[in-house]
Each structure stands twice: as structure tokens, then as C-alpha cells.
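Workshop exercise sheet. Pairs work together: one partner reads the sequence aloud, the other fills in the structure field after running the prediction. Swap roles for the next sheet.
Pair: D.N. / O.F.
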Amino acid sequence: MSKTTIKLGMGMLLSTLLFTGCVPTMVQRAENRTVPQGYSNTSNTDTVNTGMLKWNQFFTDPYLIALIDTALKNNQELNITLQEINIAKNEVQARKGEYLPFVGIGAGAGVDKPSRFTSRGASEFSSVFDEEGTHLPDPLQDYQVGVYASWELDIWKKLRNAKKSATYSYLASVEGKNLMVTHLVAEIANSYFELMALDNQLQILQTNIGIQQNALQIVKMEKEAAKVTELAVRRFEAEVLKNQSTQYELKQQIIETENRINFLVGRFPQPILRNSDNFINLVPDSLSTGVPAQLLDNRPDIKQADLNLSAAKLDVKVAKADFYPSLRITAGFGIQGFNFAKFIKAPESLLFNIAGDLVAPLVNRNALKAKYYSANAKQSQAVFNYEKTLLGAYISVANQVSLISNLQQKYALKQQQVDALNQSITISTNLFRSARADYMEVLLTQRDALESKMEQMEIKLQQMNAMVHMYQELGGGWR
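Structure field:
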């Protein structure tokens, strides 16, 4: 090779490197990870956090624990997510293999018979003897076997960054599974408490129907004594029938809630074991919120957003590395011959090759620029998503803190209302018997008492659901 050729090649290589060094400049957005010191106006430094408890420590009802345990094994959506994790894990293995040498073995056989009336055929026909004077076979056969290898040197860490990005994506999928577990645990617990509340509402309604039926008998006797008219009897009958029909609405809701739990558990409809007798006396557990900074470690959605952000940052580096030259080394070693005797004769049958390729984009880099710009946009998108997730987590916990406090006050007042209306039922019935109150006062008092008891049960359910939601918002349920 002449000096001129070497200088020309070096000049082209230098020009290529300089040209590919002109990578578009992008300003990346940095994420904001700061959170307030506490969930109220006063800073809370207590790090005791209920969200760190395992779900089977937080919930104590054995029937509920059994349902959650079964759901974590059989829930179809969760099992689908587990397969997605396996897919992401396989992607890590694939990325890892890309920056390791590729080595393979190959064998081949063929036959070649050119026409003698061509320049190639005429040339080969004039020299059809080998070095030993033996006539070469016609047509000429070819047999070969060898080992080949290729390796792209990861000089810009492009392949390693791609592997790290796939690893972060895999870990993000694991956190996605943990997030799904928290939702699954919370949904089963909320449905279970809803089922207990419906049982109690049905019992309250049936008890109230008994009271109204007794009042109806009293009104009928008063009519026979000419103290009231037929209108009073019909109004009480209508109220009894209305409440009797409401029973079937509640029974349907119970069936649907049971089947919702069965679906989450991953089984066909069957009765849900439970003990609803003491539901009204359940007291929501006192929850410790800890400090907001603990959300970064406890909440799977924040950890997932953080890992996706890390992957997006590496994808930017991978896209940037596409502008730089890539170096690939290829090599091969084997034996080749036109018959078996020549095939195994060494060293004449030996062959080998080694080459290095340096390739860099020079013209029409629009596709690379588009990929690079998209990677930067996705990185900014991941930053916004992380900040949104962190902000949403803080606000959700703050809302639950306020909700639990307000529900506690609301339930205390509702209990006083229920007690007052229970006493009013007895008072209004006695006054009606002594003709000191009309039937509408009795009817409305019974109706108000029923509504207040049903509302009380709704508030109790809201309290239990708020407890579950607080546990979930603090990052509990996936451990």
C-alpha cells in the first residue's frame, strides 16, 4: 500500500470522526425530588410509618387474610403482569449478549460448474491440474467447516448503557407488579368491608320492617276504634312494602359484591366467609404517616417512575452514541477442500481471516437526529411523570389524613342522631296510642330513624375504606 493511499485513508477517517462529533445539543430537564417536611403546618419528624407493615400484619381478620392470600396466587391480572416481568428480564439478557462476542460454527458443501464458453470457464479449463498434476474434478466440489466470530467493541458504552436501561425497565416492571399488589390488596379489603356493611344494612332494614309492621297493627286497631282513617292504614302499609322491596336491592348488591371478590380471588362464584355481626363496633386502626420523604422508598409507583426516568436518561446516551463511529472485529478459522483427501490435509487446507470495520454515519443523519430528539423528549416526559407521581402521592396522603379526622367527627355526631331517633320512635308510638300525636309523626320518625342507621353504616364503611386507602397511599400492601 502506498503512502498516498495511507494518507488518504487516514484523512477520510479523521474527517469522519470530526463530522460525527457534531452531535445536536440538547438541554435535559432535571427532576425535582424535594417534598415538604410534614403533612401539616407543623413539621413531623416521627419516622414511624404504618406503610412499612406487611399486609398480613396490618389486617387481622382471618377471613380477609385468607382472601388476600388466595388472590395473590390466583388473580389473573397479577399473573399476566408476572409474565410481563419475565419478558422484561429476557430483554436484559438480550441486551447483555449484544456487547459480548458472537461465536458460531458453520459447515458447508457445494458444487460449481461454470460454462467453458465463458472467460471464467475457459480460464479454469486451461488449468485443471492441481499442484501434484492430478486432474481436478469437473464439476468442482467444495467442502468447508470452520469457526467464526464477530465483536462490536463498545467504545462509547452504547451497548452497556442499553443493557442498563433494560435493567432499569425490568426493575420498573417489578415495581409495577408491586403497585398492582397494593391495588389488589386494597380492593379486596374495601370490597370485604363493603360486604359486611351491606349485611348490617340488610339486618337494620329487616329490624325496621318488624317495627313498622307492629306500628301497622297498632294503626289498624286505632282504625277499628275510629281514632284514625283508612288513609293512615294505607300509608303504613305502603311504607312496609317499600322497605320490603328494598331488601332485594340489598341482597342483589351483596351477591354482586361477593362475585366481585370472587373475581379478584380468581375463582367462580361462591359464598364469601365473613363475620359481619361486629362491623358497627370496628374501630379503624390508628395510622402513623411518618415523614413525606419515606414515600420515595415505600410507594411502588414513585419507585417505578424513578426507574423509568433512569432508563430514559440512559436511552438518551444510547441515541447520542449512534452519531459516533462503531468498531466491529470479525474473524474466522477453518478448513476447506474440493475432496475429503484435500479437506483434511494440513496446513494447505487451512484458512483464516480477520478484519476490522470502522463505520460512522456521514450523510443523511435525519433518522439518528429524530431518534435522539425523541429520546430527549421521552426523558423530559419521564421527569414530568416522576414529579407528577410524587406530588400526587403527597396530596393523596394529606387528603386521607384530613378525611380520617373528619369522618371520626362525623360518625360521633351521627351516633348521637341515631340514639335520639331510637328514643323518638318509642316516644312517638306512645303519644300516638294516647292520641297526643298523629300517625304521620310516627311514620316520619320511623323513616328518619331508618335513614340515620343506614347512613351511620355508610359512614362506618367510609371509615374502614379510609383506613385501607391511607395504608395504600403510604405504600403499604406490597410487602
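Discussion prompt: The radius of gyration is 40 Å. What would you look at next?
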